């Protein structure tokens, strides 16, 4: 009976090992990125070829209903109490939150992505979309207290931090040389599609 039991259980153990290794391979598979930042190298109809900032070549199909917004520079002084902003921050040496960039949303985009979450711009960076409730001017920048529905955060914005806002754009701006951030998804055939793109104006590289 022992021999029969072994001959029965060994195939089950082998099968279980195969299933486990398959799940491990799936778990270790790199996630598909949700955005690409880079330069448009070629625009042909509804297809874009983008060279990412890290050097990869990415081909994107532009969705028929794709939304394009322009990104343009503004000054630190344009951030007011009551402004709805997005701030990419990294931990400072003093434990505070230092802004890598700040984008001020126009009024019709107020509430977009409200909250604070990890972000992929830099190591240990986070993105906080919130309303400015206080702004304290210092010798080398502003300290903002921003509030969102689940909390608040103090953010230091230096005089050298890029500050931008969004303006209406259109697909005619999607041409070779333009600096873009394209939000993308992978289609069932493995290709990529974008339905939201931010384009830098006047040679600007969108900093977010």
From TrEMBL:
Please provide the record's keywords in A-Z order. Answer: Signal
Q: Indicate the secretion signal residues.
A: 1-27
At the top level, the lineage of the source is Bacteria
Protein name, entry field: DUF5666 domain-containing protein
The protein's organism comes out as: Bradyrhizobium manausense
């Amino acid at each position: 009976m022992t021999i029969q039991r072994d001959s029965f259980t060994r195939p089950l153990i082998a099968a279980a090992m195969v299933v486990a290794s398959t799940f491990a391979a799936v778990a270790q598979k790199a996630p598909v990125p949700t955005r690409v930042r880079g330069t448009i190298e070629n625009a042909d109809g509804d297809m874009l070829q983008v060279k990412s900032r890290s050097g990869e070549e990415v081909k994107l199909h532009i969705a028929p209903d794709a939304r394009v917004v322009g990104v343009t520079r503004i000054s630190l002084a344009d951030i007011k109490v009551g402004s709805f902003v997005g701030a990419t921050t990294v931990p400072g040496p003093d434990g505070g939150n230092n802004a890598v960039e700040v984008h001020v949303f126009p009024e019709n985009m107020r509430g977009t992505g409200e909250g604070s979450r990890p972000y992929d711009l830099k190591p240990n960076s986070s993105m906080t979309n919130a309303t400015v409730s206080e702004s304290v001017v210092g010798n080398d920048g502003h300290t903002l207290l921003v509030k969102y529905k689940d909390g608040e955060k103090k953010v230091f914005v230096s005089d050298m931090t890029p500050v931008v806002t969004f303006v209406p754009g259109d697909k005619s701006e999607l041409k070779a040389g333009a600096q873009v951030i394209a939000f993308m998804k992978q289609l069932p055939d493995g290709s990529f599609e974008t339905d939201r793109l931010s384009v830098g104006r006047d040679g600007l590289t969108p900093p977010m």
